[in-house]
Design a protein that fits this description.
This protein is an alpha/beta fold and 480 residues long. The protein is 39% helix and 23% strand. It has 14 helices and 25 strands. Strand 6 and strand 7 (131-139) form a beta hairpin. The N and C termini lie far apart (68 Å). Bound molecules: NADPH dihydro-nicotinamide-adenine-dinucleotide phosphate.
């Protein structure tokens, strides 16, 4: 059984208490590794190491920082198969998805910020009479980075890479549910020659390790991705300490389909935006609004295509959906399907747990599920389910669909399907979201601002937005 270790001050170490937690493989429902049950004392060691490493790392030439980050990216690429298998075993996602999306993106995150820092410039503002202002953007200190379980290495590195590129040192915590690839990353960082203490990874529970990071007085900035309730808790704790906060939280994204869309393309992408990664992507479109003239045609084709999706062993090449990340999460999703029935919804496809045989007999699998007949204001259509469950809602007019789409407390992303560009632009402008995709989904240019509005978060990641977050601007005014 693999024993995961913390990565503190450049070495792999046990938690001080010697206590470990079980780590499950969702595909089999069995424990397959042990994870440190770290505590505040481990976080204190990590912060101490990060503080010691900071003066040297922040003064290291950006070209050198860039080279080290690029080397980490290269090692991730070199270990693609091993990392993809580890991600699949930890999270339950199809190994093919981890190989095509999660792990390549983790390498890209390091490569992207390794080069972005070389192009990062600051502003100058000239005044009349021989006065010039220039802006210094300096690293801040020790960054706290906390990430969720749905895209483990992908989201973990999306925070760490810009923090390190900007010259900060980092104390990071992956989700306790999916720690394995973060552990493998610590081995790769050692191999890449990342100086000791520059990145520290402490494993363990959110309410112990996570809370010790967010409340630590020597961590002045927190980049967090996870649930809205956890984000609110972090904001409450961090606000009186005036920490910089970047919060990427939950979503209940609308997928708006107009009757004039390219039907085949929309259908193909809607299957992905509904059920990729078992629907456990914050950007999945879980409320599908369909213009009335297209409703019956869409419903028939979508149900037929969904029923063809294969739920199976994540490690076999032909599984479209793998296992749900944990038993607790599977039960939560099933409880929402029950709620949808109580609220008057009809299940058009799925709705049940899937039982596999052999080694996967005790795994946590769910059918992709489609529900219709619910009003937009019911709980099923207002609360984040974060699983392979979507609802179908017909609409008559653009105004009506915008009102329904904006009716939740969330505002992360949206998808709009139409051939009429005027409609597309108008709807995108009127939706309360941070990201609007038109005739596509999850197309990502890493230079663009990424994040949500309302209860979906505060701040933006991506490109120079991330580098702005991980640096402090200082204005210098000179009269000559
Ligand atoms: P959680 O909020 O439960 O956990 C996220 C991370 O925070 C985990 O590492 C967790 O540790 C840690 N944590 C838990 N409690 C605390 C605390 N009190 N203080 C500090 N850290 C804490 O989210 P999930 O892992 O369940 O992830 C799913 C959620 O993430 C969904 O709501 C989804 O929408 C959202 N998400 C948002 C994205 C975005 O970009 N907007 C992208 C991806 C997901 P532990 O695992 O040990 O509990």
């Amino acid at each position: 059984m693999e024993i995961i270790k913390n990565y503190i001050d450049g070495t792999l170490v046990e938690p001080k208490s010697g206590a470990y937690l079980d780590n499950f493989n969702p595909a089999t429902g069995q424990v397959y590794s042990q994870i440190p049950d770290s505590a505040e004392e481990d976080v204190n060691d990590a912060v101490k190491a990060a503080k010691l490493a900071y003066p040297s790392w922040s003064k290291t030439a950006k070209e050198t920082r860039s080279e080290i980050l690029a080397k980490i990216a290269m090692l991730i690429e070199k270990n693609l198969d091993r990392l993809a298998l580890a991600e699949s075993m930890d999270n339950g996602k199809p190994v093919s998805l981890a190989k095509q999306v999660d792990i390549p993106r983790a390498a890209t995150n390091f490569n992207f910020f390794a080069t972005a820092i070389l192009h990062y410039a600051s502003e100058s503002h000239a005044m009349e009479n021989g006065v010039i202002n220039y802006t210094l953007r300096e690293p801040i200190g020790v960054a706290g980075c906390i990430s969720p379980w749905n895209l483990p290495l992908y989201l973990f590195t999306w925070k760490i890479a810009p923090a390190l590129a900007a010259g900060n040192t980092v104390v990071a915590k992956p989700s306790e549910v999916t720690p394995m690839t973060a552990f493998l990353l610590s081995e790769l960082c050692i191999e890449a020659g990342l100086p000791a203490g520059v990145l520290n990874i402490v494993h363990g529970l959110g309410n112990k390790v996570g809370a010790a990071i967010t409340t630590h007085p020597d961590i002045p900035m927190i980049s967090f991705t996870g649930g809205t309730a956890t984000g609110a808790q972090i904001a409450k704790e961090a606000a009186p300490m005036f920490k910089k906060l970047s919060l990427e939280l939950g979503g209940k994204n609308p997928n708006i389909i107009f009757a004039d869309c390219d039907f085949e393309k929309m259908l193909q992408v809607t299957l992905k935006s509904s059920f990729s990664n078992q629907g456990e992507i914050c950007l999945c479109g879980s409320r599908i609004f369909i213009e009335k003239p297209l409703y019956e045609k869409f419903k028939t084709a979508f149900v037929e295509a969904t029923e063809k999706l294969k739920v199976g062993n994540p490690q076999s090449g032909d599984s479209d959906l793998g296992a749900i990340v944990s038993e607790e999460h599977m039960d939560k999703i099933l409880s929402y399907i029950e709620l949808a029935k109580e609220e008057g919804g009809s299940i058009l496809a799925g709705g049940n747990r899937v039982s596999l045989s052999g080694e996967q007999e005790k795994g946590w699998y769910l059918e992709p599920t489609i529900i219709e007949g619910l009003g937009h204001e019911c709980r099923t259509n207002q609360e984040e389910i974060f699983g392979p469950v979507v609802t179908l809602i017909p609409f008559d007019s653009e105004e009506e669909v915008i009102e329904m789409a904006n009716s939740t407390k969330y505002g992360l992303s949206s998808t709009i399907w139409t051939k009429d560009l005027n409609t597309a632009h108008r709807v995108a402008e009127n939706l309360h979201v941070g990201i609007a995709w038109i005739n596509c989904w999850l197309l990502r240019d890493l230079r663009t601002p990424f994040g949500g509005t309302k209860s979906s978060g505060v701040g933006r990641e991506g490109g120079f937005e991330a580098l702005h977050f991980f640096t402090e601007p200082k204005n210098v005014c000179i009269k000559y």
